[in-house]
């Protein structure tokens, strides 16, 4: 089971990474903070000071097509915001 699904790279998260040394990750719904901390340390090799988690609920979406309205729902997910120790950074763009 993979704990970390993917990093969240948005304008807000990039700003938080540069200024506050905080990074966002989409994580498994069943993972707790200790498992997330261990997974981040294993994958990126950084020291995690603090972890905040939240479950983001899915939103309902509708669109109009030839056959009429199509209604659907985006899936919900768990988000973890981690704070790194002073002087630590994560570079998401190093292997591009």
Compact overview of the structure:
Helices cover 22% and strands 42% of the residues.
Describe the structure.
The protein is an alpha+beta fold. The chain has a single domain (4-84), classed as Alpha-Beta Plaits, CATH 3.30.70.330. The protein has two helices and six strands; from the N terminus they run βαβαββββ. It has helices at 11-19, 33-44, and strands at residues 4-8, 22-27, 48-56, 60-65, 68-73, 77-84. The strands form two sheets. Strands 1-2-6-3 form a four-stranded antiparallel sheet. Strands 4-5 form a two-stranded antiparallel sheet. A hairpin with a 2-residue loop joins strand 4 and strand 5. The longest helix is centred in the middle third of the chain and has 12 residues, at 33-44. The model has no long low-confidence stretch (mean pLDDT 93).
Which tags fit this structure?
Alpha-Beta Plaits, 2 helices
CATH level 4 superfamily: RRM (RNA recognition motif) domain
DSSP strand (E) fraction?
35-45%
- What coarse outline follows from CA principal-axis ratios? elongated
Quaternary organisation of the protein chains: single chain
CATH class wording: Alpha Beta
**In which range does the helix fraction lie?**
10-25%
The average pLDDT value, as a whole number, equals 93
Number of helices: 2
Order of helices and strands: EHEHEEEE
Strand neighbour order, sheet with most strands: 1-2-6-3
Unreliable spans: none
Radius of gyration: 16 Å
Going by helix content, strand content and strand pairing, the class is alpha+beta
For this structure, the CATH topology is Alpha-Beta Plaits
The tally of structural domains comes to 1
Biggest sheet descriptor: 4 strands, antiparallel
* Overall strand count: 6
CATH architecture designation: 2-Layer Sandwich
């Amino acid at each position: 089971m993979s704990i970390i699904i993917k990093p969240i790279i948005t304008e807000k998260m990039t700003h938080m990474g540069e200024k506050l040394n905080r990074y966002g990750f989409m994580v498994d719904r069943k993972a707790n903070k200790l498992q997330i901390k261990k997974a981040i340390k294993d994958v990126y090799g950084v020291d995690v000071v603090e972890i905040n988690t939240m479950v983001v609920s899915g939103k309902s979406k509708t669109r109009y097509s030839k056959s009429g309205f199509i209604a659907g729902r985006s899936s919900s997910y768990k988000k973890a915001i981690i704070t790194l120790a002073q002087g630590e950074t994560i570079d998401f763009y190093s292997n591009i």
